[in-house]
Write a structure and sequence with these properties.
Length: about 500
């Protein structure tokens, strides 16, 4: 692997970053330069005695399941046995079922070591005693973790309880609309002139008229909340008691239903829904925009942008228009961390393997892109750019996981030709220094005092949010109903408790 990227990353100061997410891989078939002492200790231990059986680390992550995962894991485990005398049992949960599978595994007592978390779920697992405090384990084994995170290695914590190790990822995003590039060129659409949802409206009207088989903008019930993607509010984890205007100018927590920015977006989306600009099954469909682009059924989708945003979705080239500024919200700083389950038979070994994943180029490349020659080839080894082998593409590939966003260290990755620029990681490092931070950036609250109320509030949120944010219902009628239902479920107690913790957190900064 070309060492240029790693050297720059190692010297990068991460003081501006909090908890985030990703990984990928980089070829070259070499062990990482910096590895935990675990492998060495195992070697010493086995001199003159029979080598112990490899410990199997069960790791739950999320992504698209791959046909040839067993083939790749065989290669990965050859490396892990060599270096750590461990094996990895990687469980990849589909996007729509990660919450259920994680909950089931943590509560059932079945074997689980490393578990993919976000701050919202981690709080409940922490209070229920289902994950362990990682502070001492990071100190003991976090060689690579500290190399990349420095003083922020324990930033995923609530009240000092370190619930996870943050993945390396973007800090914040730019709200954007991703449009089919071929259609943009066909109608000579001026992408640079689109700077807001209102600017986009005439384009959607034109697409509806001239491309009747194509939905102007695809929205899916399973995608992240539109309010969060558009930086309308800072959700402060739960999206119920929030900071208005992405937390730029206030520290007063309000109900999401009282956010003027949120109300305006709901009204605009309802207008679009009635005009037929949004797919009419938006509130119920689980079809992601990637699949809609691949099927040719949509012109655009609302998403977030950063330098690693793909140039293609579903094999379709994208043209991006930015709909706002680069904002870093509180929830955006803790989307993905890896915790260790209380179920783990050996937390020390689990942490050793997690730290290894932050430093192993060899394993990263296998997990992300597969085997060289079978699943990918270099098209420019000097620039560390890879692509499909002859005869292989996205339609017949048996392994192409693209797990960069879901595994610990994206900065190990090769760039995929046509998807990322060769210097994408340098761009990401620059991007992470920029962006306007919410006044709640880095804040996570302990839900234990309002656990009962929060359960009821989330049920109300589940009933109303998707319908409002997809435009399927009239906000003039449903926003008051939503707020009243939240009040009945304990909204005032949540706001009081969260404001108290937020004020204490602010005072300690």
């Amino acid at each position: 692997m070309k060492k240029r990227t790693l050297k720059r990353i190692a010297s990068f100061t991460l003081s501006s970053m909090m908890t985030v997410s990703l990984l990928s891989g980089c070829g070259g078939g070499k062990q990482a330069e910096s590895q935990p002492a675990a492998g060495e200790a195992t070697t010493e231990q086995t001199k003159g005695e029979e080598k112990e059986e490899p410990y199997v680390v069960t790791m739950l992550t999320q992504g698209e399941q791959q046909e040839d995962l067993p083939r790749i894991m065989e290669k990965v485990n050859e490396i892990l046995v060599r270096d750590l005398n461990m094996k990895l049992n990687l469980l990849v949960a589909p996007y729509g079922s990660i919450n259920q599978q994680r909950q089931l595994m943590l509560t059932s007592g079945e074997p689980l070591d490393l578990v993919y978390l976000d701050a919202s779920s981690a709080i409940g697992f922490m209070n229920n005693g289902q994950i362990i405090d990682l502070s001492d384990l990071i100190d003991k084994y976090g060689t690579n973790i500290k190399k990349y995170w420095g003083d922020e290695a324990k930033s995923a914590n609530i009240g000092g309880f370190v619930f996870g190790v943050p993945n390396l990822n973007e800090v914040g995003n730019i709200p954007a609309i991703g449009m089919r590039k071929d259609i943009v060129e066909k109608y000579d659409i001026d992408v640079e002139s689109i700077k807001s949802l209102e600017d986009l409206e005439p384009v959607l009207a034109m697409i509806k008229e001239k491309e009747p088989t194509m939905t102007p903008v695809h929205i899916c019930a399973d995608q992240p909340p539109i309010s969060r993607q558009l930086s309308v509010i800072d959700p402060l984890i739960d999206g119920i008691a929030v900071l208005d205007n992405s937390g730029q100018d206030t520290t007063t927590i309000i109900p999401v239903t009282q956010s003027e920015a949120y109300k305006e977006k709901c009204e605009l989306f309802h207008k679009w829904y009635q005009a037929g600009y949004i797919n009419q099954d938006a509130a119920t469909t689980t079809v992601q925009f990637e699949s809609a682009f691949k099927a040719g059924s949509t012109f655009s989708a609302i998403m977030v942008w950063h330098p690693m945003s793909p140039k293609q979705f579903g094999g379709v080239d994208m043209a991006y228009a930015f709909l706002g500024e680069h904002r870093a919200l509180s929830g955006a700083t803790s989307n993905a961390d890896y915790g260790i389950a209380t179920n783990s038979q050996n937390p020390d070994k689990a942490m050793q393997l997690l730290d290894y994943l932050y430093g192993s180029e060899e394993v990263a490349q296998l997990l992300n892109w597969g085997e060289e020659g079978k699943d990918w080839v270099y098209v420019d080894k000097e620039q560390n750019v890879v692509s499909w082998p002859e005869g292989v593409d996205s339609n017949n590939a048996t392994y192409h996981a693209q797990l960069s966003w879901a595994l610990p260290n994206q900065f190990m990755a090769s760039s995929w030709e046509g998807v990322w620029d060769p210097d994408v990681f340098e761009q990401m490092l620059k991007f992470n220094k920029e962006g306007k931070k919410s006044k709640g950036f880095g804040f996570a609250y302990n839900t234990e005092p309002v656990e009962t109320e929060l359960t009821a509030l989330k049920n109300v949120q589940e009933k109303y949010r998707i319908s409002l944010e997809t435009g399927a219902v009239d906000p003039a009628e449903y926003l008051p109903q939503y707020e009243e239902a939240l009040k009945q479920a304990g909204l005032d107690k949540l706001i009081e408790e969260k404001q108290k913790q937020f004020d204490e957190w602010l005072a300690a900064q």
